[in-house]
Every structure is written in C-alpha cells, then in structure tokens.
Amino acid sequence: MIRRRRLLSIAAAAALVPARPGHATAISQWRGVALGADASITLAHPDAERIIELARAEIARMEAIFSLHQPGSALALLNAQGRLHAPPFELLDCLGLAARVHAATGGVFDPTVQPLWALHAAHYAGAAEPGAPSSAAVAETRVRTGWHRLRLDPDDIRLQPGMALTLNGIAQGYIADRVARLLRGMGLEQVLVNTGEHLALGGDPRGGPWQVRLRAGGELLPGAVALEGAALASSAMRGTTFDAAGRQGHILDPATGRPGPAHWQLVSVIAPEAGLADALSTAFCLMGRPAIERALRAFPTARLAALVPQRPA
Question: What is the tally of structural domains in the chain?
C-alpha cells in the first residue's frame, strides 16, 4: 500500500488572496496534474488561455520523457531495454544535474534506487503478508543499483542488467524549469509555475513576491515563503509511505536499501532552478544538518527555506 503526500502540502497563497490595494490585476490559473502531482500555472495576461495551453503541452512533452509509467516514455524505454540510443536532450540534461547532486551529497541522491523502490512497493502492496522485504532480498537488489553502473554519453545511455532509474526526486522540478524557460522565451515576467515544485518568474503581478505557504505534519507553518525569480521545492520522508500505518517513508537510503530515518518532517530548498531545489530537498531528507550544510557549499545559490524536525513518537 502506497500512500501519497500525506504530510507534505504546498499552497500558493498568492493565487488565493484578493489583489492588493492599487493592483486590480485579473489572475488566471490552470490546475491539473504533472507526473502524478498537483500542478498549476498562475499568471495575469490577456492571452492567458493560449499561454496556458502551450505550457500544458510542454508538461505533456516532458511527461513523455520522464514518466516511469507512461508506455513509450524515454525513461520507461531505458528501464525496459537497459539502453537508450539518441536520448532526448532533456533526459541527458536532467541526468547531468542528478550527477552533480549525487557527487555533492556523497551519493545520497541516487536515481538508481528504482529496483529497491519496486521491491519495497511490491512487498507492502502485493505480498500475502505485507511488510518490509527481507535482508536477503534487499541485499540481492542492491547489487543492481549504484550511480557508477550508469553509462551516460550524448548518443547513448546504458544500464547494467537489472538496473532501472527513477527521476521522481528531480523531474517535477526539472519540468517546472522547462515550462518557465518556455514562458520566459515568450516574454512573460510574472508567472508562478507549480509542477509539484514551485518556480516563480518574477513576482506577483498584484505586487510584491509570490507568497507560498508550507505544510508539515498536516499543519500549515506560520508565515509564508516570499518567492520572486527563484524556485522552491519541498520533500518529506513520510510525504509518501509504503505502509498503511504511514511509518515507512518512500525516500530510500542507497547505503542500506531501506527507508531512511525520519529526521525531518519537511525539508524545503530555494534555488534558481527547481530541478536543483527538488533534488537537494529529496537528498536532505536522508541527511543530518552538518551534512546538509556541507552539500550546500557545492551550490552557493541554493539555501534552506525550511527544515522542520520530526516530532518525537
């Protein structure tokens, strides 16, 4: 049994409040889904409907690259065949970013954990007696993981037998980056893109930065994050869980092959790019504060927006 985003919720408060005095700007907002996460695009523009349709088409194009479950997606084909010739630029670009975060986090961020994720999901959802997989099963599966086993070239991506990738800890943010790139190229300067992670082009057209609220442990955190010309990504170890009790978080530690300890209820990162913020927030769920600070030194433009400790049981 997999429970989705039980502890993590981000609301773009600016999209829900009336215009500020002196700013009678009409706001348009599309709401939908991107890679299984709630998505939205918020803007003020006389041609908003056409712009939103173009953005939705870009999201669909990115899903055809990064979806784990969409038949024929580039990632699905790579996982099924173990090799992908002439991969899309976006897949190479995203994997290049993943490599940088992998190195900066000492291997904690590792998209090759997909076989382990599938193992845990199958044991909790499909086993006759749902529960954690055995140590032997985890050990056998771990030999089919490891970033060093991935071969990444401009014309060819290769996996060793039995390997598979998941980009769920980075792709939602990366898609926000691509949508923002499209809109920026059209001359837009004040848009909030949300593909599960937020990216603000400029500020709120009603004045000031976009105000984004964070939720941890089912409760809204006090205040809001002011977002302008930057991205915000959040992760929670137990935002998705394998078990019905909500104790076995979905972010796996590649060093053990099991869900990492729940140090934090919520980790939020601000960075210029949503893909970077997404990957860092995912990895930081598995890391203590000193290790997080060391990893951030490799990305001087990124910073923590929230680090909420797990409450005692």
Answer: 1
